[in-house]
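Entry details:
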Amino acid sequence: MLVDALDTVQAALAAEDWPRALGAALEAWRETRSVELADLIDRITARCELPKPPHTRGATQRWWLGLAVDPDPIQLGALVAAFPVRMFADDERWETIRMRWPAPNPIIAAIESIPPPTWWVLHRAPHGHIWPENVCNWVDRLAATIQWPEDPRLTRVLVDLLGDPDVTLYGEITALIARAIADRLLVLNDHRAPGWVAKLTAKTNPTYKQRITNPLVVELSSKITAPVPREAERIAACGARLPANQLPVIDVEPLWRQIAEHPDDDGLRLVLADALIASGDNRGELIVLQCVTDPERLGHAQAQAHRLMRQEWDRWMGDLSLVLVRRGTEMRHGMLEKIRVGQTSTPAWAWDAVRGHRELSAVREIRPAQVAPVTFAKLVASFDRFPRVLGIDAHEVLEELLKTRSGESLEVAYYAPVSASVNYRRTRPAYDEVFRMLARLAPDLAQLDLGALWWLGGEFRPSATQPEVYVDMMRRIASMFPKLRKVRIEARSSGAQALALLAELPFIEVLATKLDT
């Protein structure tokens, strides 16, 4: 049987009959669990003409489920490729999903085995809500995937689901679903899986999902066994019929430097994207996807870009992933544009390691999170091109920056002396001295955003009974910046009387909500 299947693979590859080659290669893989055949199956799938998902959001899930009941090898390749598209949308209610994949489906059984918690029974059930709520499309798709025939193309999907921190569903249910995924991976016994799942243990931020998955990672690594070599020469001959693409080695560093010099040129970004894709780096795919402007393709492109970032963030960013805070960090047109830096777990060595990182080439906005002011200032000072928007959470940031930088083209500054990384009761300069330092750093500042305690400094404490003092302070601050057009302040930063007086100044905008920090 194995010899016949491998002979069929060779003949089909020679004739470029990709569907027949794929079916025979799957048959041979199920007998051998050969890593070489698994990789060959991926290469054959790439040559097949796969069904394409629709571009409209509502139709994607219907298309996926329509093929998922009993997919042939070609359809299964399309389903695997489209699995991440809208996987976190909730296009179907739980009752529909449960009826579509009845027992003994392990995913459905896992969800049904956990009763609703008391808080839900008391507060949600009386209003007609069905347990569980907000069941995403990934549950529907995973319930289908878990029943498909054994196929090495499923390994990557299952590993990604096991390691994705967003693939969760009400605590105990998450643990049971993770167990079902691990059991299926053990059945597949794909020897590539241990190397992939090992990456899950490299996460530095402990989460509930990791506490569930880390023991499973250890179990998979120990129980998935290397296949016994069978017909190695025939398998190698099959692989030789369709070798892996030999990608050219392209020096992309000059392109990154050009983007740093011309950060607003999308044309340069797309040139870099082509070079990265040609060298086999899917970092280029993200640039292309985020540069899509066609309204009909935009939704699909955004979903694909989000999937890529979730899967490849750590690899793309390297040491920078230890510094960046994902909430508050944004990529636009394929490049980091807004960053928030400083995790609670950031190691001290990482700050020096990320200076000059190529992914920082197009950054325009930098804000601090859990980082000491001096450390933050040194990172900002290391940028060849000063950011357009800067968050400042302590006067020490300005003191350190002025040691090496002045007269910068900073456009917007956010200031609130609320850093938790330094002693709140330390000696501070007078408030006007802080803004004089800012004026030396950025004399052409156009907008100043002021958060809580902006007036704090020295021994000065404005009195609530003298709200006009705030107006005098604000006029003095505005006089230091000749090109200042707007000052935005949070409503919580001053008393009601002071805010009323400040609002009369033509350049003041009082915000009811908290400023973006």
About this structure: The first strand starts at residue 330 and ends at 332. The chain has three domains: 1-241, 250-314, 371-512. The CA atoms of residues 55 and 300 lie 6 Å apart.
